[in-house]
Fold:
Amino acid sequence: MIIIKSDFEIKKMQEAGALLGEVFDLLAKDIKPGVTTAALDKLAEKYLHQRGCVPSFKGYGDFPGSICASVNECLIHGIPSKKKVLKEGDIISIDMGNIYHGYQGDAARTFAVGNISPEAQRLIECTEKCFYEAFKVAKPGVHLSDLSYQISRVAAEYGYTTTKEYGGHGIGREMHEDPFIYNYGTPGHGPLLRKGMCIAVEPMIHQGAEDITQLDDGWGVVSSDGKLTCHYENTIYIDDEGAKITTIDKNVKGHILNVER
Ligand code: MG
Structure:
């Protein structure tokens, strides 16, 4: 069942999302060669608590961290580790969720660690574009799969593949609500978007083949061919004429200026 949020609830979602955006901006400064993903996790948790937020990932299905820290071939759900030291040229996806006054934010960014290759840069560019092309078509009356289609269309244009097993989701008082949002598809299927829907749209893109392997730790998901992967996500809500992002940080601000609706 898709839960439609009232204007009051949308305000709460915006508050949660704004705080998550602030934390992303702080954390972005901490991402550099030599830092462990466990250290980033500790910092994220501290920043969230300082803002009165609960880290929603911690303890979710026994996940041990406040962030998912997924480096290079790790697509999603990387467990923060003292042994994982970032090095120049890595890309790291940080996925982070918060609860503020009962409402949730969920977002992911893939950051460059120092100088990265043009290929890695292109993958990040593509993944962000997948999100914004989906975001641009989101408005009342369009089908959910119209967003999914945009993600797979952009990925294919770059010569990349999209994850089939994981995708976006409704969000509100719970981190994962209906509907599930595929990262691929053809237009014109699934539920119609309506004002008051809140969804987390999260393209997951592979430089190589889409096949994934689950790590022995029960969480981390990596590309089976060892090639780079990338993840980008924002929480959005549908309003009268289109859609708006709640999880606003500097990254989103840079894009919004360029997104024509
Ligand atoms: Mg999510």
